[in-house]
Amino acid sequence: xxxxxxxxxxxxxxxxxxxxxxxxxxxxxxxxxxxxxxxxxxxxxxxxxxxxxxxxxxxxxxxxxxxxxxxxxxxxxxxxxxxxxxxxxxxxxxxxxxxxxxxxxxxxxxxxxxxxxxxxxxxxxxxxxxxxxxxxxxxxxxxxxxxxxxxxxxxxxxxxxxxxxxxxxxxxxxxxxxxxxxxxxxxxxxxxxxxxxxxxxxxxxxxxxxxxxxxxxxxxxxxxxxxxxxxxxxxxxxxxxxxxxxxxxxxxxxxxxxxxxxxxxxxxxxxxxxxxxxxxxxxxxxxxxxxxxxxxxxxxxxxxx
Length: 305
Known about the structure:
- There is one protein chain.
- The protein is α+β, with helices and mostly antiparallel strands.
- Among the domains are: 35-55 and 112-199, Ku70, Chain: A, Domain 2 (Beta Barrel), CATH 2.40.290.10; 215-226 and 274-305, no CATH class.
- Helix content is 24%, strand content 25%.
- It has helices at residues 106-111, 150-163, 203-207, 217-229, 242-255, 275-285, 294-304, and strands spanning 35-41, 44-52, 65-66, 71-72, 78-79, 83-84, 92-97, 100-104, 119-126, 136-144, 166-173, 176-185, 188-194.
- Helix 4 (217-229) runs parallel beside helix 6 (275-285).
- The radius of gyration is 28 Å and the shape is extended.
């Protein structure tokens, strides 16, 4: 006899609850640091902790279920020869060739320690503009860890704020040594992990096939006018994850037994075949006047500087 199918839970879905977590500053303060150690500038040091500056804890995620029983599927580690194995008994191996591994124990990994395992030493100060945006990675808050060394932390922060430079240092985190960029932010410090050079793809290899042709100057002038029409301040609260909101609405309606609402169809593709026509229609759509001449546009930019 087939196992009876479980009924979906009637408890309110956490993901479907209305939330204001898209608003700036609504994420809760992390309770656990991702790293603890000492921040050091030459002979001055102080205990600090790194906390994630962003969170994905409230993202919608789905589990895989057996549709016959509505039971959640468990992923069980399995040896292809002997069958299921206990996860606690597994070891780490690095593949040096097909099906040939070097096994490394946790004790051996612990012996591979650098000074940066427990110390974030500032090695250099650079201009922020000198760091290519390709290298910026994840943000963290760098804060004092306890009362000891608080004076040293404040001195380092104030000196950095007055100099207007980005500090570079390295720290071992998540089994890797990472380059960190540190700058003052309010009463604390903001630290960004930076990608290493061997992690970044050379842009030239991606852009080599793009021809170096010069576009029609009139088209560029019109495109510049469109850009000017859409200029504005960066207001993050205006940019919300509309897909996540639609998922929450879908879950809420299904939880209440309501029929899902189909998304509005995408607008039909434009039938404009001329690039000039497309640009001119885009400009008219905004109700703007004809584009300024190249000379007047350049003069306007010079005055703005």
